Amino acid sequence: MKTLPYRDNVGAVLFNAAGLVLVARRADLPNAEGAPGGWQLPQGGMDPGEDPAIAVFREMEEEIGTARAEILAEHPDWMFYDLPPELLGRALGGKYRGQRQKWFALRFTGVESDIRLDLDPHPEFDAWRWAGLDELPGLAVAFKREIYERLARDFARFAG
After folding, report:
1. Distance of CA 89 to the CA centre of its chain
2. What would you give as a GO molecular function for this chain, any one (predicted)?
3. Into how many domains does the chain fold?
């Protein structure tokens, strides 16, 4: 499966005024409340040729119902993860070996009522909350943990 490509993806580390980050609970994972990977940062696939800075706002609008934010920083590196063997051929439409991600730190400029998970007929998330940046690695599934550790370290200057 090493011949499969990586899917281009963007992710949002959305900080509120207190320096906490928005995490959302995946609607498709049973017992997601306490499971690693049950809570994650908004992220999603890029369209071919799409600018990552445009894509991150589109993905936030699709996943959390709002794009009310301003970019604080774009991570300088693309980060990669490979799917574990049991998900290859199933996750990501079965067409990818993992994802190549461009991450952004953003400041939320709206009010909490702007965050709407109910706008999509098939929502990816069923709940959201604000979390400390240091919580991120513990929320991640094992194959994404290294990325969440790096985000927590590299975007720490924006935390409260």
Report:
1. 21
2. bis(5'-adenosyl)-pentaphosphatase activity
3. 1
**0.90 exceeded by the pTM?**
yes
Give domain status of residue 10, yes or no.
yes
Q: How far apart are CA 105 and CA 51, in angstroms?
A: 16
Contact between 110 and 4 under an 8 Å Cβ cutoff? The reply is no
Q: Flag whether 121 is in a domain.
A: yes
Tens digits of pLDDT across the chain (160 residues): 568 999 999 999 999 999 999 999 988 765 555 555 688 999 999 999 999 999 999 999 999 999 999 999 999 999 999 988 888 877 787 899 999 999 999 999 999 999 999 988 889 999 999 999 999 999 988 899 999 999 999 999 999 7
Which residue, 84, 82, 78, 85, is CA-closest to 98? Answer: 82
- State the residue range of the domain holding 117: 6-158
Report the CATH number that the domain containing residue 43 is assigned in CATH. 3.90.79.10
Strand, helix or coil at 125? strand
Contact in structure between 99 and 7 (CB atoms under 8 Å): yes
